[in-house]
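User: I'm putting together a teaching handout on how sequence relates to shape, and I'd like one worked example. Could you take NOL11 protein from Rostratula benghalensis, show the sequence you're using, and then write out its predicted structure as tokens right after it?

Assistant: Happy to. First the sequence, then the structure tokens directly below it.
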Amino acid sequence: MAALCDSFTLCGLGPSGGVGLGGGLLALEPGPDPDHVLLTDRGRTATLFKVSDQKPLGCWSVKHGQIITCPVVCNFETREYIAVHDDKVLRIWKNTDINLDKVFKATLSSDVYRIHSLPYGGPIVLFKGGGVRTLDVLLEAPQQEIENIISDEVIKWSEAFMDGQQPVLIFTTEKGGDFFVYVQKLKMNNLHKYKLEQLELLKPLSFTAYIKNQIITLLCLYSNDSVYKVLIPLQQNSEEEEQILPKSQLLKLSVSGSVLKGTSFVVLDKDHIAVLGSLAAPGEESKECLTIWNTKFQTLQTLKELPLATSGQLWCYEEKFFFTHGKVLTVITYKCETSSLAAAVGKQKDSQTPDVSSFVNWNTLADEELVVSLQSQQSVVLKSESKMTLRSKRNSIAKVQPDTLSVGQILLNIKDTSTTVFEEELRQLISKARMPDFQASIGCVITALINRCKTNPKYYPRNFLLHIVQTQDLSYSLCPDLMAVALEKKDVHLLQICLQRFPDIPEEITYACLKVFLSISEAYLQRIDVNLESVICYIDIEFNNKEVKTEIVENGFNAELEQENIRNTEITKETHLTADCSFCPVGPQKAALLNAVLHSAYNEVFLLPHLKNLPAQQAVLFLRYLYYLYVKSSEKINTALPGIRSPTVSQIMDWMCLLLDAHFTVMVMLPEAKELLSNLHKFVRAQVRFYSELNKIEGSLRELQRLNHQKDSQTYSIEVLELI
């Protein structure tokens, strides 16, 4: 359940407020500490507040005649503040600075729309023409040319997230009544454009979004007093044309016949949203109020009437709501707990929360109850109504009847329809998130798509299948034919996503994926969109998609040990070692696909017989890549590769041993594998020697630690300890 708790005034907004917010509040952003917020007024002032004390910690203003044109933000890494005034002038200062005329200044070449600051991704600058730059790149050349991406479109809203270690920016634009969505992945420099599905005579009023499992969930508040949900997978084919994003209704803002005219809203957790707006009841004067809704059970959880006017803006940080109320900035704390039906309908007792059971919109609950109701209505009609009445009743029931059909009946009805109608019906079926046995139903949908692929070899709905796999929690057992068709089509992107998300893939399919990945040419893979997040942090990629040479510092490398075992000169030896270790033997796309295989679950008893069928050249290539990963993971003390879903040392070693068990005889006989096996052997032995030396001093280190615990060193001293 959710509840509103204590409220207090943070500051005044009029000239007597004492914080320079007489021009109204432009934005509220988080400060350098969790208890700090940064306020920007619609003029020339920014103020830092400590929320718990309701006191300003600092206030900065630009000169008269200058105007701050986008919200001031904090750089969480440097604890500096960043502002833009007059659209193009960038200012950066610290907490100790007083006069903004004397702080860092840079004049940019294009107008700035907004700056987003991420705790671990740094500040991101979005320009009004749609161009995006990180602050570091922008400061290297402030007058650099910024591309104009959106032409005649106008940006309406933007937000930034961290997807693992990669910053992601999303913004919406409007042109001639059409709304578009842009998603920019900064590290990979990928930009995707989408078009929002139009609703007749309706337009979006406000947006908010969040990211989870590489899927952006965009929520749109529309003028028909409803909140719609749009799912945007981050992994998309870069060659695809502009897609139309379908939407599904998440919530209808109606309360016992009254309608909430929302102006802004925020996401609280996976089941709750807060909406600020005016509640209009028939024949009564509308009242502004703050509400919290449960999207899972379609209920209003709590509301608070606001008798004074608001600006229609709502912010939420650290479980606190911030909004203007009259001439003050009001703060209300809230709490959200795990959703339960008892709490949703107001049956769960809570002294702090009024009973809101009367606000339940029962029309949106339980589709099963609607089916029973329709069946009972139909039986009564057949027994008691005249033929004319019966005909009209049947027509009214028929309009609702398709929603009550089972998944199997719907799939049977649309089996012979055209491709366009077929996919549209399936999309509508998937959008019904509250239907019973939802996961099993999704499996039936995929099976229907696969069966159509088998009957029509030219038909392959790649994007639709990708969307389903990325947005639903599926498994191999729910759709066993999906990966088989993807293997037949050599759809490596879909196979990669399946390997990452399916927990129960058979060893035979895992081997088939490995064989396909190793056999496809690098040139072909460069034209395909593949998720590179598992390799982008340890394989440096230039614009031509070739790896950049990096220095290798091996954990456990011992030059003296190498001299004991090699007859060649030291220069020749180091040259061979660098050639094998410092360059990845495969391109980044193939490396990312192989990493997906390394992450998949398997039983070596069942996988080993299949691995023995792997062609020798592919086995050598795979072993070279595993050796490269092994050396890379040994560069640092923590022996962990950076990035998302990067292979662990245990996974690398297990696959290396498994591959050698399956192909050792062949490896020994192949000339091209001889040097690889020799280098691998020497590298492993060097590490064994290195860790053996560490084990020798383990006892001394423990004794030193014991002595330090025994002594109470209250005064300064210097001691010399001899390790024997």
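A couple of points you could highlight for students: Residues 347-404, 542-580 have pLDDT under 50 and may be disordered. The longest helix spans residues 671-696.
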